[in-house]
Amino acid sequence: MMGGALRGDPRDVVRRGIGVVLLVAATVVAAVSAAGLADADRLTTAVVTVLAGSAVTLGFAVGPPVTASVDPLDPRRFAVVGPEPRPLAAALALAGFLSVPVLVVLVLGASLAVAWGAQGASALASIASVVLGLTTCVLFARVSMALGALVQRPRQSRELMGVYLVAVLVIVVPVGVFLGSLEWRGAVPSQLASAAEVLAWTPVGASWGIAVAPSPGAAFGSLLVSLVTVVVLALAWFALVDRLLTTTPRPVAARERAGLGWFAILPGTPGGAVAARSLAYWLRDRRYIVNVVIVPVAAIVSTIPLLVAGVPFEVAVLLPVPIMALFFGWLPHNDLAYDSTALWMHIASGVRGASDRIGRLVPVILIGVPILAVTLPLAVVAHGRWAILPAMIGVCAALFLAGLGLSSISSVVAPYAVSRPGDSPFQQPQRSGSGGVVAQGLVMVGALLAALPSIWLTWRAVGGEAIDAMLALGVGIGAGLVVLVVGVALGAALFERRATRLMEFAEAT
Fold it and tell me: Which residue spans traverse the membrane (predicted)?
């Protein structure tokens, strides 16, 4: 297959040849630079190794879906000869090592091993680091392509490219802000060293941290994480091969027709259909668009009185992002009311409550998470201490996730009339009771209560207690997930129980 890439149309062969030459040249330059780390100090070598290795491994994981790569070793291509899933999975995993990207990583890994050896790393640790790093990259690519084959996207659509662009922004912008805020004074910034230390304990960077670990304990920890990652990816690969060989792909002719939009992107399940319809509404209906636009504006404006009142800037600048997280979680608290008469499709077709509740949260998550991911690093940079970032993530996660969970209940229990489709978003109909006000208030108060422990820990972290930042991260994410799961489950049960009343409400408004 590698040789076949240099055959065919002469113009394609020329382009691929030029690409190979450029790749070889870039690989040689990178290999020389990697070997040159032998003259650097051990901390610099460790930081460069872990950060670069993590970036390469992450590229193997996310590259195939972003570039819409067609897997030449798709297991379904071998189905015509009736292979057994396990031997085929093992053979394809081994064949995955024979590719140009993997050979490039091998060359770079060998160059890094030279630098590690010059700085005292054992040969066994260097070999383990390179071998496990290559294995992790190959398995990530195999699993990523297999998942792409299951989803089966024969062509890139505008919606799918938008999702990929947002995903890239979520990763690139925070990393760029972080690197741009560092102060380089002839040595590796402490923040960058801390980031490399954290990555050395993650699946994408553990294998590259074995040979450059600062202590035997850290090396063993990275080795353990790397081995667990390889085992989990291998099991996932074997399971995916079995699934691909025993599953008949659905016809794609109907899905390739123009005009399906999000329905062609999301899974063909009840929850996927609800999510696709909700996304179409959120991105086209001006009532939803106005709500989304108002959230960042309201969050920024709310900090002005604090600054006027004398609150220090480094504290006030942290507030807009949690406020946005709270409002994004609050947005779907009355989502059913915006459906007007469309709700009857869900009820008449027998959509389960869980599918309805989860599908309606997809647009808010796809819109809210990127905005929070981009603005949070900016707020931390303005604050001046990157050590507060985990705590801020915990607070925002608690407010956002808890708000989504409580909104899943509120939109079923206490929907209230809103402006109808086509009306001005600022036009509010008359209401006969105060149920809408109470529902709005309860969702916000409940989200704040769920986030209260992480808020308190974050306040301590702002005062200098660095350990509280990590506690706030765990407590915030944990509390938010618990409220989200409970809220979706309870909202799903109430949706099925109150289906008739919800139908009457939708028809009446």
Answer: 44-67, 88-116, 122-141, 162-180, 192-213, 220-240, 260-276, 288-309, 315-331, 361-382, 388-416, 437-459, 471-495
